[in-house]
């Protein structure tokens, strides 16, 4: 376990125009910490990992692992991968097809010239850890996808590295297996306490695994925080959108209250003016928003936007909006509903437990949508 320090890491790729894949990125990782890099495709996650591993030649920056400086561009230090105590697990498993499981797991030990007896013991231990002990004499082609990924995991851990890098290691597994291997990885980390940098574009994976999340955008870290804080208090609209607050409702101050901002409410589908409320119709008397704000955009997760019959009043702490159902799909314990509110389309998740009313929601139906006033904070 090591303290990892990344300072001013920059990697450009030649091209027209040149791509800045990693842009002056700094990050400190505590020993034993599980850091998740979360962001959309192309934001520089893989390149950051490859720089950590020594597989890229960065243009700027320094990286230290414990007391070892593995990269210092100005100081002309860039240790090759086998001189860094780093393990790697990739999306594609990247197992050697012509090697048995035993030889695959042992590969990083051979490149580090670990003595034979010690290597044998480490391979057995690593295979044991991920339940692969019975598979050691097989070839990758004789394994299922889940087994291959567990072998890749064992290989990443076998050399007892200071730092383990994961590049979307679960994304090739089907949904059920993905949950299984994810839980196994979470438990393994709790048990062994290795330091990890885990890359994903999947927000639920990030929230489940990370001690801290680094939300990346265009080669930079947009927010670095615990999963709880990223989820509850996203620092920017970009982070909010990425972490599942898919709804955006613009409001404008009018007199002492608030109205829907934007043009008059029209229904996109029919082009008719919708009766679901025009721009001048007040939606809330007061909201817990600082006086200095005259316009706000309320960000809401689908399960924060509630629905009730048009004739019903929501509770006093709620802000009510006239809405029309555009689409309603059965989702098991809830309905996934798209509603039109003035000229905004919003997603609501209406629970079905104890509320069979929601099951009958259908296109064209007028309903009341509401959210808690706190959500405007
Ligand atoms: P992510 O893993 O987040 O999807 P990458 O690190 O793979 O992102 O890529 C970041 C950016 O760098 C992208 O714009 C990508 O096109 C570019 N890039 C990555 N690798 C190369 C390469 N070998 N040559 C040129 N451009 C690259
Ligand atoms: Mg990638």
UniProtKB/TrEMBL annotation:
Compositionally skewed regions (Polar residues) per UniProt: 266-278
InterPro entries to which the protein is assigned, alphabetical: AAA+_ATPase, ABC_transporter-like_ATP-bd, ABC_transporter-like_CS, ABC_transpr_MalK/UgpC-like, Mo/tungstate-bd_C_term_dom, P-loop_NTPase, Transp-assoc_OB_typ2
GO function term, MF aspect, one: ATP binding
Pfam families: ABC_tran, TOBE_2
GO CC terms of this entry: ATP-binding cassette (ABC) transporter complex, substrate-binding subunit-containing
Keyword annotations from UniProtKB, A to Z: ATP-binding, Nucleotide-binding, Transport
Domain ABC transporter: 4-243
SMART domains: AAA (SM00382)
Region (Disordered): 262-286
Name this polypeptide is given: ABC transporter ATP-binding protein
């Amino acid at each position: 376990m090591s303290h990892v320090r990344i300072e001013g890491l920059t990697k450009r790729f030649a091209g027209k125009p040149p791509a800045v894949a990693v842009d002056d990125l700094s990050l400190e990782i505590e020993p034993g910490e599980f850091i998740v890099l979360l962001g959309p495709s192309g934001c520089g996650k893989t390149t950051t990992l490859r720089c950590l591993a020594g597989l890229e030649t960065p243009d700027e920056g320094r990286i230290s692992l414990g007391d070892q400086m593995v990269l210092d561009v100005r100081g002309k230090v860039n240790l090759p991968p086998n001189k860094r105590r780093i393990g790697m697990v990739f999306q594609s498993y990247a197992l050697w097809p012509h090697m048995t499981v035993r030889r695959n797991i042992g590969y990083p030990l051979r490149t580090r010239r670990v003595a034979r007896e010690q290597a044998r013991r480490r391979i057995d231990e690593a295979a044991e850890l991920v339940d692969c002990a019975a598979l050691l004499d097989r070839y990758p082609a004789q394994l299922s996808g889940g087994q291959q990924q567990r072998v890749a995991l064992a290989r990443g851990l076998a050399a007892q590295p200071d730092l383990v890098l994961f590049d979307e290691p679960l994304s090739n597994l089907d949904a059920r297996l993905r949950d299984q291997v994810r839980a196994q990885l979470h438990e393994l980390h709790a048990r062994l306490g290795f330091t990890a940098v885990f890359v994903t574009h999947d927000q639920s994976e990030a929230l489940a695994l990370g001690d801290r999340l680094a939300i990346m955008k265009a080669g930079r870290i947009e927010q670095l925080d615990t999963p709880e804080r990223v989820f509850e208090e996203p620092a920017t609209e970009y982070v909010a959108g990425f972490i599942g607050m898919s709804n955006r409702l613009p409001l404008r101050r009018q007199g002492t209250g608030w109205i829907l901002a934007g043009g008059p409410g029209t229904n996109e589908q029919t082009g008719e003016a919708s009766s679901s409320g025009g721009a001048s119709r007040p939606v809330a008397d007061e909201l817990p928003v600082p006086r200095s704000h005259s316009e706000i955009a309320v960000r809401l997760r689908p399960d924060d936007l509630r629905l009730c019959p048009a004739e019903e009043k929501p509770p006093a702490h709620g802000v009510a909006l006239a809405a029309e159902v555009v689409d309603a799909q059965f989702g098991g314990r809830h309905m996934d509903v798209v509603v039109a509110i003035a000229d905004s389309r919003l997603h609501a998740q209406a629970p079905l437990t104890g509320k069979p009313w929601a099951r009958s929601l259908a296109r064209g139906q007028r309903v009341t949508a509401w959210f808690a006033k706190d959500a405007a904070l």
